[in-house]
Amino acid sequence: MITTRARGEAVRVAKWVLRPWRRRRRAHALILLYHRVARARSDPWNLCVSPGNFRRQLEVLGRHCEFVPLIELPDRLAAGRPTGRTPVAITFDDGYVDNLRNALPALKAAGSPATVFLATDWIGRAGGFWWDRLAAAVLESSQVPAEIHLEVGSATFDWHADRLGGSGLRQRVRLHRELWQFCQQLSENGRDSALARLDEIVGVVSAGDPDARPMRPDEVRELHASGVVSIGAHAQSHRPLPGLSVSEQVAEICGSRDACRNLTGVAPECFAYPHGEVAPGSPRLVERAGFTLACSTVEDLAWPDRDRYQLPRVSVGDSDAGRFESWLTGTWLL
User: Fold this and answer.
1) Contact (CB, 8 A) for 21 and 9
2) Where in the chain is the domain with CATH 3.20.20.370?
3) Which residue has the higher pLDDT, 8 or 44?
4) Using alpha carbons only, what angle is made at residue 5 by residues 13 and 240, rounded to the nearest 5 degrees?
5) C-alpha angle 249/252/258, rounded to 5°?
6) 190-219-215 Cα angle (round to 5)
């Protein structure tokens, strides 16, 4: 009997084998996903690409692909057969200030447009994104206590290092992952309480990474005014939509749409699902909210028959020019 997992793997392999054949015969595009252009003190989710590597990656893309604004891709795909170089759209999630400070100059130099998706409730928050606060507390503190106990309402978190084997670094990595899972399911107020208590426990005293924060409203407007970057919506709180009711999803989607419009004076046309997670009804909610397209984090090329409200994106790592070019040409432009 063929299991569901085996069937899924067979489909994935078939797509891989057929991709070069499909690329020669069908219109297609590549949407790349970045988060930060910076050198971070800690980067557990591999969100950072160094400024130097980002510039060199854009140079490689300029040799092999055609830079296209994200909003134009559905019409380009609908036009039919591929012509010339593969269209590529550059996107950023969350709204870090280094998108303005470090990414924008490189985009201008390369002649590449980009779309930055804002988690709008976080814009202007001096304390930074909660996942960065957590990483700093666990991965950058001088030492982690052998025991940690947190109580937030009815939720509790207990950590006992002596129950685990492995090195100190390995324990920190595991502690970070388990705390992230704990904080992810808390309310915003509960998460703030948990992180404040965690700071007390580990004794974090740090000015923090100056680029590891969301943009301020004036910085969003400066980015928008560049003419290079389009502002898109990434929901309000950055909570995964599948865990929310329909009314909560509508509030997240429409609230971020309205916030982006208030920031820039222009209604956003593009939406990106937080964490790339799409509930069954989410695409139609995004469509009804007036967006033209939406992006997930399913890793694939974009094809003409793809739902424009579930466009795939490919995450980019901190690779130098040689490794990036091999990855680009050997995987996606094969």
Assistant:
1) no
2) 9-125+213-332
3) 44
4) 100
5) 135
6) 25
| Burial environment of residue 304 by CB neighbours within 10 A (0 to 12, 13 to 18, 19 or more) | middle
Burial code (b: 16+ CB inside 10 Å, e: under 16) for 143-172 equals ebeeebebebeeeebebebeeeeeeeeebb
**Any idea which architecture 9-125+213-332 has in CATH?**
Alpha-Beta Barrel (3.20)
Do residues 40 and 139 lie in contact, with contact meaning Cβ atoms separated by under 8 Å? no
Q: Which pLDDT does position 6 carry in this prediction?
A: 47
User: Token pair of 319, please?
Assistant: 């690779």
pLDDT, one tens digit per residue, over 199-242 is 888 876 555 677 789 999 999 999 999 999 999 999 999 999 99
Pairwise CA distance, residues 95 & 230, whole Å: 12
Position 332, amino acid: W
pLDDT at 240: 95
Angle at 87 between CA 84 and CA 91, to 5 degrees: 165
| 61 within 8 A of 328, measured Cβ to Cβ | yes
Contact 326, 43 (CB under 8 A): no
This prediction has a pTM of 0.91
Q: Token pair of 233, please?
A: 């919506």
